[in-house]
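Help wanted!
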Amino acid sequence: MSLLEVADLRGGYGAADEVVRGAGLTVGAGEIVALIGPNGAGKSTLLKLVAGLLRPRAGRVRFKDREIAGLTAPDISRLGLSFVPQERNVFGTMTVAENLEMGGFLDRAETHHRMEGLYTRFPMLADKRRAAARTLSGGQRQILAMAMALMNAPLLLLLDEPTAGLSPRAAEELFGTIVSLNQGGVAILMVEQNALEALAVSARAYVLVQGRAERQGEAAELASDPTVRDLFLGGSAPPMLSQNRGDLR
Amino acid sequence: MTILLQALLNGLVSGALLAVPAIGFTAMFAVLRFPNFSVSGVATLGAFAGYVAYAAGLQIIGSLAVAFAIAGAVGLFLDRTAHMPLVKQGALPAAIASIASGLVLENVVRLLFGNELRGYDRPIARDLRIGDIRFSPQQLETMAIALAIMLAVFAALAFTRIGKSMRASADNPELAALKGIRPQRVAMMASFVGMGLVGMGGMLLGLDSSIDPLTGTRILLSIFAAAVLGGLGSAPGAVLGAFLIGIAEEAAVLAVGSAYRAAVGFFAILIVLSLRPRGLLGERAF
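Answered by r_m:
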């Protein structure tokens, strides 16, 4: 049984602007799934439709065996699905500690305990707890954004281009963090422009083209498929990711 | 020198009184994203609600609580029924509707209480003096109450869950919704508290002088100028802007006469929008 099932999903930003046109995908419990594709394919829009930031025009979205299409973002978060947007994913005017508190807004009783756990896991957040989030570097901000999502103790994390704008080293560290989060039991659906790296850490992947999932399969299979490589991955050899990535400190 | 110091003191008192409604105005802008000009009518309503409560025997703090509750409730009702349905079309239609709401409220007050000036019947007390500078104990009391209200607002925003969720929504409403914060609830809270502060501001200004149906209209420009000067959406900015406008208005009275006092607000808005459109403290919400 899949944790998330999306079928025939349609939607976009306006009545005349349907970006996602009948997309479908599944994410199993504890799985990392990558969503790749060219610019404008509707990847980010699909995540927003699932997370409740946009209202689907048609189709089904089932999470934990419950229909969530059309629910509001706060209601979907309450069920244990956390979305980390690509941009503006922290409250810039608030401190790191306040950001984490807001991340745990739905579960006040656990807030303090979870914050301490995240400070241990990401010592950078503990060091910067009183700093305004807008003063953090790009990589630190992504870590904070993910930590905020973890404050909700999610079963599924939706990550929209988590490495966008990061240096290669910071991006690699962030992929390491994503893998370690997944090893802790969190399922991840990730949209990434950095497709080869994303496929290297994912179990399965979907290739989205013009709002539909055109290809799907094992991530390793797709990474070595010549058509997929030529169309979306730049045609080069897959990178050898280091095996011993640490969390971003 | 004495005249300048006296003007400075008067400016600080005016600034403190102006800061309370200016915080309300800017907090509503931060969350609801339109300039709510019905604060003119709501300030007048608050001043009269406090007046009635005070005349009925309540003390100043109790009367302020009545002004807060009535102004907050009416402001919330106007936002839900007349302003917020228009925000989807943009800030301008909602802002124009709020001007109309302010006029309606002003005329409701005129219908109920007439046009004459009214004063809070406070006990007469001898002025206090430091050297040649004079100030009344009532002025001091009113200023202390305004400062206490400001402190309470900042403490609520900094330390309470509701305050933090309002700041989060003002900073990034979409992300706030993803964290489980309900935008409608925060918007209603912002309307109620913001308009409540405006109502208390109207009463505090009435305590310092007198009230009539135009009480709110007279301070509307100063409230707006204070918020723009500090940075629309920034509560510390509104306080800074209110003190600067209060002092500038007193300085203008000294320099060019009281007829030009009202020009200070226009001048401040013109300068800020030309040189630093985001205001002195930018859009740092709270």
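OP: Thanks! One thing I noticed: The interface with chain A takes residues 161, 164-165, 167-168, 171-172, 174-182, 284-286 of chain B (CB under 8 Å).
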